[in-house]
Amino acid sequence: MLAPIHPSEQELISSILLAHNQEEVKQKIDVFMELLNELGTSENEIKKILNNIQSHLDSCNPFNYDAQQWSNIKMADIYCYEIYQAMFGVQYS
């Protein structure tokens, strides 16, 4: 069962779906991460947020999205994983 999603995380996922290309997906995630840092979000909370976003992206059914949206979902999933690896150097739990 998926954890409830915070409105800001849902807003990010919605904006990812509307992105025109993969670079725009990365930019949206980078802006979100910068906001978390500006707000002084703890590392543990960032871990939870990244895990939650990835869980929701992984739960997406490809038959419910067009080709661009599905590409955006996969790019966001990969990019969140790369950020997690860069920040914490460990696998998702």
Automatic annotation (TrEMBL):
Q: What is this protein called?
A: Uncharacterized protein
Q: Where does this protein come from, organism-wise? A: Hydrotalea sandarakina
